[in-house]
Amino acid sequence: MKSKGLERLDIVSLFPGMFDGPLSESLIGKARERGLIDLRVHNLRDFSDDRKHRKVDDRPYGGGPGMVIRPEPVYRALKAIRATGTKRLKPHVIFMSPQGRLLTQKIAHDFAVKPWLLVLCGHYEGLDERIMSLVDDEVSIGDYVLTGGELPAMVFADTVVRLIPGVVKEAGSITRDSFQSGTLDYPHYTRPAIWRKKKVPAVLMSGHHEAIEFWRQQQAVAVTLRKRPDLLEEK
Ligand code: SAM
Q1: CATH label, 176-234, candidates 1.10.1270.20, 1.50.40.10, 3.40.50.920, 1.20.1440.230
Q2: Which residues are identified as catalytic?
Q3: CB-ligand 1 contact for 122 (6 Å cutoff)
Q4: Helices marked H in 114-166 — which ranges?
Q5: Alpha carbon of 102 to ligand 1 centroid (Å)
Q6: Fold that domain 8-161 belongs to in CATH
Q7: Which uninterrupted H or E stretch holds 120?
Q8: pLDDT mean values, one per 10 residues, the chain (235 residues)
């Protein structure tokens, strides 16, 4: 049976409060209100096996700096969240990690067709390696290291959720986005027609749809050549 696409996204984090603004405002907030995505943020401490202090981390074996998130709380979180699904529906588990596959528009499309994603955010030195056997994918948002997986998870959620049909009202706005067809987006203009002596390109005011489309395609290639020529190189 063909999947209807992403319907549910769970995020497990030590700092669930960080998600309040970014995932409840703007398009993502509206998508949640309209029931286009069931987005749930969980506190990893709720799954701690340390009832008293709800501690989830410990010192690394072998010594060295920092703390490591213990596998048991993560295991419990995965088990509890999985149990809220059906036998048929299991989450695709993603660990946000600087060591993962680099997030691109193409990868975002691949994730947007999975019905259920469960995103784990690391912190400190990361997760105990033994939990990786329960992780399906590691995803990175770039070759730099952040304090925790929360910001990467927000970037990931925003990128993937806006690909769900209906989230962005005009589907055409997604198909023309940068990276969708191998080029960057063309330049955009709005009112006034003349702003501080700078004019909007005449073709955009011509009402000639074919000419406008041709100009935009040309511009998309020109912009890509100037800013990201690597995208046009044959792979
Ligand atoms: N010691 C780890 C390493 O070098 O691979 C980095 C740990 S980092 C301080 C803590 C957490 O932040 C990671 O476990 C991961 O969840 C998240 N994180 C940091 N940078 C990231 C990136 N570029 N993409 C995705 N997640 C990242």
Answers
A1: 1.10.1270.20
A2: 98, 125, 162, 177
A3: yes
A4: 150-161
A5: 13
A6: Alpha/beta knot (3.40.1280)
A7: strand 116-121
A8: 83 98 94 97 97 96 97 98 93 98 97 98 97 98 98 98 94 85 96 98 98 98 97 83
